[in-house]
Design brief:
Blueprint lengths: L2 H27 L2 H25 L8 H24 L5 H8 L1 H9 L5 H14 L13 H22 L6 H24 L6 H28 L2 H8 L2 H13 L5 H19 L13
């Protein structure tokens, strides 16, 4: 393999992770009529927890009580973030929900620096959010409950980053496995209460496993490959394309058509995210780029 081709592999892995994640989320949305958003979230988080536990086997390594509390808080936020996001995309197009959710890490990145240019990125992101209002004659008003849930998911993502930093001294794989298990313990009862016995239908269970693999296992593995060969700043810039990829996946898989103003809103938020990353010190973005 040539050196040039080897250098391209991490970038191809990251772009593949973004595409697979958005396709997996689109597929997850198609399960909503069967088990609801809560049941689908239970599948994603529950199966992801099982996969991570089998891979990392965290019970083999002792963990201090204080660290266990930090991981539990991190996992609780992770579970609520997933639950609120899936409940948001019941009524909000996928690309727009991802764009709104991106305001969480964007806010954390801006808060980590005091550069004047960041106020410009805040303004651009605010413009993007303003464009989500039904100002275009062809735009359908967004469901306020769905938008509110996407905003809560953004707050949870910001807290996920902050709490994740407090577990940074722990082994990454084992802490994520324990965090995802905590998330499953929170989300699974909600999913079971909402979906009932249908959640345990063998055929639907297999579809739920596919959701977990596509939405978590494969993207996470590909991101680990990418992180080994891509500078964190470049990783963040590429990851900022996720709302646009999500909008395309929503269009092609779910038939979610957006009007011009909504595409411009996504473009503004993506540009604000990229600009923030490019003007934030590299050491400050190390943990602000992984959802």
């Amino acid at each position: 393999m040539s050196a040039a081709r080897a250098r391209l592999i991490p970038y191809a892995a990251l772009m593949s992770a973004i595409v697979v994640l958005c396709v997996g989320t689109s597929f997850a949305k198609s399960l909503f009529p069967l088990v609801g958003a809560q049941g689908t979230t239970a599948y994603r988080v529950g199966f992801s927890a099982l996969i991570l536990l089998l891979v990392w086997r965290p019970w083999r390594h002792p963990i201090a009580r204080a660290d266990l509390a930090r991981v539990a808080a991190y996992g609780a936020v992770m579970g609520l973030m997933n639950l609120c996001f899936y409940m948001a995309i019941r009524t909000v197009p996928l690309g727009l929900a991802i764009a709104i959710e991106f305001m969480g890490p964007l806010a954390v990145a801006v808060a980590s620096s005091r550069k004047l240019i960041h106020f410009a990125w805040i303004g651009l992101a605010a413009l993007g959010l303003g464009l989500l209002l039904p100002i275009d004659p062809g735009a359908k008003p967004l469901d306020p409950v769905g938008v509110g849930l996407a905003c809560i998911a953004a707050v949870m993502w910001a807290l996920y980053i902050i709490l994740g930093k407090r577990t940074g001294h722990l082994h990454a794989g084992r802490s994520v496995a324990l965090g995802m298990t905590t998330a499953a313990l929170i989300v699974a009862p909600i999913g079971i209460a909402s979906a009932g016995a249908s959640l345990f239908h063998p055929k639907i269970v297999l579809l739920g496993l596919a959701v977990a693999v596509l939405s978590s296992a494969i993207p996470y593995s590909l991101e680990m490959i990418a992180l080994r060969g891509i500078p964190k700043r470049s990783f963040g810039v590429m990851l900022s394309a996720e709302p646009a990829v999500g909008a395309l996946a929503g269009l092609l898989i779910l038939g979610e058509r957006l009007v011009v103003s909504q595409w411009l809103a996504i473009a503004a938020i993506v540009a604000a995210s990229i600009g923030t990353i490019l003007t934030t010190p590299a050491d400050a973005i190390a943990e602000e780029i992984t959802p």
